[in-house]
Amino acid sequence: MKRASLFAATLMLTALPLAAKVSPEEAAKLKTTLTPMGAERAGNKDGSIPAWEGGYTVSPPCYKGKGTRYCDPFPDDKPLFTITKANMAQYADKLSEGQKAMFEKFPTTYKMHVYPTRRTAAYPDFVYEATYKNALNAELGGGGEALINAIMGVPFPIPKTGVEPVWNHKVRYRGQSGRRWNNQAAVTTTGDFNLVTLREDVMFPYTQPGATPESLNNVIIYFLQVVTQPPRLAGTITLVHETMDQVKEPRRAWQYNPGQRRLRRAPNVAYDNPGTGADGLRTNDQTDTFNGATDRYTWKIVGKKEVYIPYNAYKIHSDQYKYRDIIQKGHINQDLARYELHRVWIVEGEVKPTTTHMYAKRRFYIDEDTWQIALVDIYDRRGALWRWQEAHQFQAYDQPFPGIAIETIYDLQNNRYLAQAMNNEDPETQEMPFPPSYFDPANVQKQATK
User: Fold this and answer.
1) Closest Cα partner for 293 from 250, 240, 355?
2) DSSP 9-75
3) Which Pfam families match (predicted)?
4) Angle at 426 between CA 189 and CA 450, to 5 degrees
5) For residues 164 and 249, what is the distance between their CA atoms, to the nearest angstrom?
6) What pLDDT is stored for residue 52 in this prediction?
């Protein structure tokens, strides 16, 4: 009886909303001292981080129009300084543990060119308005796995608990629907790599005009991934319906294998199961630096800090460079990477003792202006630093919202790495309308077998 009572009490507790919404007085800061997304509007004391003044929302002269390559609006910017192994100690308080490890592992080749900080992040006005309303109304239920009373904007612009910034990252505004080419390179210790090309179509019901929490049918993201090369993997399909309330219904996922010619339910497309075509260097929940359920971790906000993170990554996104120009032995071509000093939320997730994950602890460095996870330090069960992630973001100024030029996952123990989300030799990511029916399993099965 005691065990049954305890189980019932636990169920009641997890079903109750967790305190998340803030008071009207606190939400009002989103219109004064904070940006509409919850970042500190002011610059820092020494001016190395400027004040946010609305972000970058005009198309530069080099931009040729919607659907074409995003060019660098700051071509005359020069590095303020370059961090190397020789001077790393001077900047150590503004580096992640993963960055420090890279300097130690590659002392003669790894470097970080630090540029003037430009707070280019900007979003449409309706996202700002929705974010303000979310601050007043959004809650979490189901032990943090159910998003309640949130729509369009980030749900928790003034976060109080560790899982809230992670939710902000998961539902941050990235447009309403579109297509991107995602090239993955699993790089060996010698610098060789095999390229896997993925065509990814996505729709965000959460950000559709007129959407309400009730209209979503519990789906916040529709995702369809098709492998186009190499031939041995071509035609492999992954379909995901990401749910808003994962207690009510976990992620729906399916996979299609050309050899079997059937679309099958795939509950393993989650957590630490290996990602498609990544040669074991990426788990499913490392796409977009982190995605999916948060329930295997206990989350806490460590604080905010000024850190050098990849930003305004137009150079490495340029179609002037081939993938071979970017991929090098040990790490990507750091001469193409741009780093800036930004304030980040530091959030740690530790695996709960009642469950498992191959990553025992993850430390996320989340950009305050965009809620994009910029860096991740990843630890194994022994407490040793194992892997390290980066996301190089840039502002899609004609939209406006930030996009990703390249993501990297470095295996510090095996001297290998994965570069993903590159499209330098493929078409630019573009908005493309998809109806929800496009992501229906029956339609995907029909298209796959044509």
Assistant:
1) 250
2) HHHHHHHSPBS----HHHHGGGGTTB-TTSSB-S--TTSSSPPP-S---S--TT---TTS----S-T
3) DUF1329 (PF07044)
4) 105
5) 20
6) 98
The reported pLDDT for the residue numbered 12 is 44
How high is the pLDDT of residue 7?
Answer: 38
Query: What is the C-alpha radius of gyration for the chain, rounded to an integer number of angstroms?
Result: 21
Phi and psi of 410, rounded to 5°?
A: -100, 130
Instruction: Residue 123: count other Cβ atoms within 10 Å of its Cβ.
Output: 24
The encoded tokens of residue 307 equal 């850190």
* Contact criterion met (CB below 8 Å) for 286 and 278: no
**pLDDT per position as a tens digit, 25-65:** 999 999 999 999 999 999 999 999 999 999 999 999 999 99
Listed in sequence order, the residues at least 6 apart from 350 whose beta carbon sits closer than 8 Å to its beta carbon are 297, 298, 360, 361
Beta pairing class for 146-148 and 139-141: antiparallel
Alpha-carbon separation of residue 212 from 124, 134, 206 (angstroms): 18, 12, 8
Kindly provide the b/e burial profile for residues 45-75, where b requires at least 16 CB atoms within 10 angstroms of the residue's own CB: eeeebeebeebbeebeeebeeeeebbbbbbe
pTM to 2 decimal places: 0.95
Distance set, CA 293 to CA 129, 147, 226, 263, 442 (Å)? 27, 11, 23, 23, 25
List the domains of the chain with CATH numbers.
Answer: 81-448 (2.50.20.10)
